[in-house]
Structure formats: structure tokens, C-alpha cells
Description:
Layout: H1 11-21, H2 23-29, H3 36-62, H4 68-91, H5 97-121, H6 129-146, H7 154-186
Amino acid sequence: MKIAFNEIKTKSNLLSLVRLFLAIPFWFLLDNFQSEQVRYITVGFCLIAAATDILDGFLARKFNEITELGKVIDPLADKIVVGIIILKLFLIGQIETYYFIMIIGRDLLIFLGGIIISKKIGKVLPSNMLGKITVSNIGVVILMILLYISRSNIIFMILYYLSIVLMIVSLIGYAIRAKEFLKQTEYGITK
């Protein structure tokens, strides 16, 4: 696996970098979580982050700019932004300890596993649809927390518990996928 840092100049990778740097304002904005105005500004930044995530993938495919760096920086930006928001929400008492541990633990396992697999097979595995659905679901839960939606709201409860199920299922899915890629590499099968 070889990542060329001149790949940073692609439109899609620059958008991923913008998303990565949004972690900084998120950290400071959430210091004032009790302010309704700050929560709305934070939601606005979340929507910008989501838009860059959708747009970077679209641009990479449209302009044939899918790069090894992009396969790393796109999910890394997602994990850092979500991680910063989740960490801050945990520190200010807005999410439960187990939920925090599940999100951070899942992301760390996927990230570290991805590094190990990439070294063994010589390429970066792109994100899969189940992982994207999981992160999107967690993102909606985060938005509902930021908007102060009641935790007893039926929609909140459904999405919250669905996110827990998706975290478990997607982690298992990543493990199965990694095993398949390792097996293909072991037997000389490449995709």
C-alpha cells in the first residue's frame, strides 16, 4: 500500500480535510452546550460535515479521483469528528458511559484492524455500506441530542437502540470482511 501525499490536492480529499478540521470548532462549541444558539450552530456544522462526506465520495467517483489517501482520510475524518463530538458529549454528561465506550471502542477496533489488514494485503479497504449506515444512524442520534429531543421520544429511542444494534452488527461485518480479504490474499485471489 503506497499513499502519495500529492493526492491531497484532489477535490474530494480537500473536502475530507475540511471535515477533519471541523473537529476543532466542535470541541469548543460544545463547551457551551446549555446555550440553545450554540447547539443550533453545532447542528449547522454537523450538517456541513455531513454534506462534505456525501460530496467527497461523489466527486471522487465523478472525477475518477479515488485515491489510497482518500480511502484513509475520509473514514478517519468521520471517526475523528464523531469521536470528538461523542467525547465532548460524554464529558458534559449528555451520553451514557456504555454508549460512549461502544462508539469509541468500535471505531478503534475498526481503525486498528484496518491498519493491520492494510499492511497484510497491501491496500486500504474502503468503507462498506453497513458501516456508513451505522455512522449515519449515530449521526442522527447526535443531532437529536444536540437539538434537545427528549430521550423518551419514541423516534429517539428507536434510533438510539438501532444504533447500538448497528454498531455490533457492523463490527462483526468488518471482521468477516477482513477475514475474507486475508483469505483471498493468502490464496492469491485479488479483487
